Structures are given as structure tokens and as C-alpha cells.
């Protein structure tokens, strides 16, 4: 792979550039609807899939593929490797682009580090198949949080890969703060919620959606339930997490509009037979998407398997990745806090608390299939359709336009080609823009 600064420049230029028609054939398609060999897909100059199909013994599949190619301006007979030529997958796995709704950074940069930091961290995830991302912002002083929200809002105007931001703080329980700065934690009074929504560009009265997609809130805080209602009314999806809530309070949070559980098992009271806590409340509620960090460290393998089975089709793989992702061990920062990474595991220097992960969704899916024995369809669903469904992005919407999460006509031209044995990502497209 080229020098990382070159990769960042290439990925950024591709994302800020125009979509181009894409035609891929001879793939083993895996998405939430199933697997199919001999598969082909064609997307147009808008970055939207126009046709899909599979090879047929009577040749009709080939005819349909060639016709679809010509409708988007691709010559199906053009030599391989030429500009705009058909891509022969040669049996590689074709999946929708992975979507990470909870991640803080990569390649020594975080999404709190301004426009250039966002470009670097996004490239670090994009080359591993994460075509779209909700940028998670860490707990900081309120003015810093609002500045970072505005930066994300500005980047969204030119970057189709950025779905908005996730605020992991400052409305967290002190007892379950994890690696967040305790000096910056606050109760979510209405005035602070309004300040954040203003920074995001939201105008609830006018029905205008801002750039905040998700916010983690401990519902047991004094104004927790009210803040969940206030954010939900503005089109944000609140998430229950970093909390010490009992079962009833968690239920109340979901009833008030919370639609996500932030990284199940981590930074919350766990399962107990006489004190059920928030996890059963999320599991039994079909409205709730449940995040899970499948790295074997935040959640060990037996609990990953248990968690995955608790809520079929509602578990979304997330990384909670921080700046050290895809980097050597050493000293890093999480906000203003010092972090030390040893053997790929990040912990606060001050108290040893886990400080995010160094995971990519590529590895999460690889682990699910090759180590834990999950079905390929289920593993891919957890990194594609399930996370986008949490925000309604599986349907046409004002943020992404074309829906995400499947290889199907009308969906966005977000594709990953993977090695058939290792599930290593080899080629990546976002909305018809080739990133790798």
C-alpha cells in the first residue's frame, strides 16, 4: 500500500469528486438477503445501482449484464484494466460497503481533530471497507463539542461517506464514564440540548434535520428522559449507554425515543438475575438497535456469541475505534486524556480503563465468520443493513439519497470486494467513487 499521506489524499479526492459508473461481474454476493454466486452489479454515474443479476445457463444473465453496462456507458467488451472497464471479481466476495455508527478515529487522528483529522481517520477506515461512517465525538467542554459538531456539518456537504456525528458524551453517568473526562460530564438540561442542536443545524420547528445522528445518554440522569425526548423530536436517535440504569429506567428511555443501545455490555451495569438492568430492556424491544464491539477484548467470544443470539437482525457491529487504530502500539490521546496501547489494546494511563478499540469493521466481520462461526449473511448484515436501519437509511432519505445496506437496484453503489478465503478487503467503492 502507498504512503499513508498519499492514500489520504487519494481517498479524499475520490470522495470529493464525481461518481462514475461501475460494473462488477463474477462475484459471490453476500448481503442481508443471502448469498449468490456468479453475481453481477451495475451502478450509474449518480452512484446508484441500476441492475443486478447472476449468470444463467441459457445466457440470459449475460445479455442482461451487457445491456445494463451499455445503459450506463460502460463497454462490456473493453479490455480489463482500461478506464471504465468491467471488473471481473473472479469469485471474490461482494458485499455492501460496511457502515460504522460508532468510531472515534484511526491512523493517529480522531474525528475531533478538525477537517484534516477527519480526512485522515476516514481514509484509515475506508481502505478497510468502511464506506460510510457516523463520526463519534468524545466528551469535551461544551464549546469544543459544538465546534466539532459544526466541523462535521461542514464536511458532510462535500463527503457522501460522512453520515453525521455521534456524541458520546457529555451526558454520561459518572460511575460508568469509561475513558471520558469526568470534569466535562453534565446533566442534559434543555438549554444544553438546544445549544447542541443549534450547532448541528437542526431546526425542529421547521422539520430540518441537523448533522447529529446519535447521542449516548444515561437515562437515569435528572434530565435524561427529557433530553431523550428533546433529541428524538429533532430527528436524532438517542442511545442508552454509559449508564447505571435499572431495567425500568432503561425501558422508559426507549419509550421516550431512544433507538440504540451503545456498545452492549461495555460501560453499563451487566446482566443479573435479580437486577436485570438495561440489557434485557434493549433485547426485548424490537425498536432498538444494539451495538456490539466484536474484538474479543471489549467483549470476549462467548459473550459475543450470546449477545448476537439475543436479538437477531438487531445487532450492529461497531468498532469504537480510536486514533491508534491500524497503528503501532504506543502513546496516544483520547480527547485530552493520555492513552497507552499495548498489544493493540487501548487503556487510560491514569486508571487503566479501556479507552476505545483499535478495531476495524473488516476485522469484526472476519472474526465473526472465520473465528466465531457466524453465517456470512449474518456477519455482513451486522456491518451493513442493521446499522443503517437504526437511522432509516435502508430507505430513501434526505441524508444519503439512495438507501444503504444491500446490493440491490435503487441502493447506493457502495461495494466491497473481499478475498474469498480470508475475507480481507481488496477493493472499495462509496457511492460510485473508488476508494481502494
Summarize this entry quickly.
The active site is at 320 (proton donor/acceptor). The chain is of the alpha/beta class. Helices cover 28% and strands 24% of the residues.
Describe the fold and architecture.
- There is one protein chain.
- With 436 residues, the protein is α/β, with parallel strands linked by helices.
- The chain folds into 2 domains: 4-94 and 405-434, Urease, subunit C, domain 1 (Roll), CATH 2.30.40; 98-390, Metal-dependent hydrolases (TIM Barrel).
- It has 12 helices and 21 strands.
- The chain has helices spanning 4-16, 60-71, 114-126, 142-156, 190-200, 224-233, 247-256, 278-283, 301-310, 361-371, 376-383, 385-389; strands spanning 22-31, 34-43, 49-54, 87-88, 93-96, 98-103, 105-106, 109-110, 130-138, 162-168, 212-217, 237-240, 260-261, 289-293, 315-318, 330-334, 337-342, 345-348, 415-418, 425-430, 433-434.
- The strands form 4 sheets. Strands 1, 2, 3, 4, 5, 19, 20 and 21 form an 8-stranded mixed β-sheet that branches.
- α8 links the parallel β13 and β14.
- α1 crosses α3 (114-126) and α4 packs parallel to α5 (190-200).
- The N and C termini lie close together (10 Å).
What structural category characterises the helix and strand content? alpha/beta
Q: Let me know the largest β-sheet.
A: 8 strands, mixed
Strand-residue proportion: 15-25%
- What's the CATH class of the largest domain, please? Alpha Beta
Q: What is the mean predicted local confidence, pLDDT?
A: 95
The CATH architecture category of the largest domain equals Alpha-Beta Barrel
How much helix, percentage-wise, in residues?
Answer: 25-40%
Q: In the CATH scheme, what's the topology name of the largest domain?
A: TIM Barrel
What is the number of beta strands?
21
As a whole number of angstroms, the C-alpha radius of gyration is 21 Å
Question: How many individual helices?
Answer: 12
Cα distance spanning the termini? 10 Å
Number of domains: 2
Report the principal-axis shape: globular
The unreliable regions are none
CATH superfamily of the largest domain, by name, is Metal-dependent hydrolases
Amino acid at each position: 500500500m502507498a504512503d499513508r499521506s498519499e492514500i489520504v489524499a487519494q481517498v479524499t479526492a475520490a470522495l470529493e469528486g464525481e461518481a462514475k459508473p461501475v460494473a462488477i461481474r463474477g462475484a459471490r454476493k453476500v448481503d442481508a438477503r443471502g448469498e449468490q454466486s456468479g453475481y453481477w452489479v451495475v451502478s450509474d454515474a449518480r452512484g446508484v445501482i441500476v441492475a443486478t443479476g447472476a449468470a444463467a445457463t441459457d445466457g440470459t444473465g449475460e445479455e442482461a449484464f451487457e445491456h445494463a453496462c451499455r445503459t450506463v456507458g460502460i463497454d462490456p467488451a473493453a479490455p480489463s484494466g482500461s478506464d471504465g472497464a468491467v471488473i471481473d471479481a473472479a469469485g471474490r466476495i461482494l458485499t455492501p460497503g460496511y457502515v460504522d455508527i460508532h468510531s472515534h478515529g484511526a491512523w493517529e487522528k480522531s474525528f475531533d481533530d478538525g477537517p484534516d483529522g477527519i480526512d485522515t481517520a476516514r481514509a484509515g477506515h475506508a481502505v478497510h471497507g468502511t464506506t460510510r461512517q457516523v463520526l463519534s465525538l468524545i466528551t469535551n467542554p461544551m464549546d469544543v463539542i459544538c465546534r466539532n459538531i459544526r466541523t462535521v456539518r461542514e464536511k458532510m456537504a462535500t463527503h457522501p461517506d460522512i453520515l453525521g456525528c455521534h456524541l458520546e458524551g457529555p451526558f454520561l453517568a459518572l460511575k460508568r464514564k469509561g475513558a471520558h473526562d469526568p470534569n466535562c460530564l453534565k446533566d442534559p438540561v434543555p438549554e444544553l440540548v438546544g445549544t447542541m442542536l443549534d450547532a448541528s443545524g437542526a431546526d425542529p420547528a421547521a422539520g430540518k434535520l441537523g448533522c447529529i445522528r446519535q447521542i449516548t445518554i444515561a437515562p437515569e440522569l435528572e434530565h435524561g428522559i427529557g433530553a431523550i425526548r428533546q433529541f428524538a423530536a429533532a430527528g436524532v436517535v438517542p442511545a442508552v449507554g454509559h449508564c447505571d440504569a435499572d431495567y425500568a429506567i432503561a425501558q422508559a428511555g426507549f419509550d421516550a425515543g431512544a433507538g440504540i443501545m451503545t456498545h452492549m455490555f461495555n460501560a453499563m451495569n451487566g446482566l443479573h438475575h435479580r437486577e436485570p438492568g438495561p440489557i434485557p430492556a434493549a433485547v426485548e424491544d424490537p425498536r432498538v438497535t444494539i451495538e456490539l464491539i466484536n474484538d474479543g477484548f471489549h467483549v470476549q467470544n462467548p459473550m459475543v456469541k450470546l449477545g448476537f443470539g439475543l436479538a437477531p437482525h438487531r445487532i450492529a457491529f461497531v468498532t469504537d475505534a480510536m486514533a491508534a487504530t491500524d497503528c503501532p502500539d504506543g502513546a496516544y490521546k483520547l480527547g485530552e486524556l493520555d492513552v497507552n496501547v499495548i498489544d493493540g489494546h487501548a487503556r487510560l494511563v491514569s486508571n487503566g480503563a479501556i479507552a476505545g478499540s483499535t478495531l476495524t469493521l473488516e476485522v469484526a466481520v472476519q472474526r465473526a465468520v472465520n473465528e466465531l462461526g457466524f453465517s456470512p449473511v449474518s456477519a455482513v448484515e451486522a456491518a451493513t443493513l442493521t446499522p443503517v436501519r437504526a437511522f432509516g437509511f435502508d430507505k430513501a432519505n434526505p441524508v444519503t439519497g439512495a438507501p444503504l445496506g444491500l446490493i440491490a437496484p435503487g441502493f447506493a453503489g457502495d461495494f466491497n470486494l473481499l478475498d474469498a478465503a480470508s475475507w480481507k478487503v481488496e477493493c472499495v467503492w462509496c457511492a460510485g467513487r473508488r476508494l481502494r
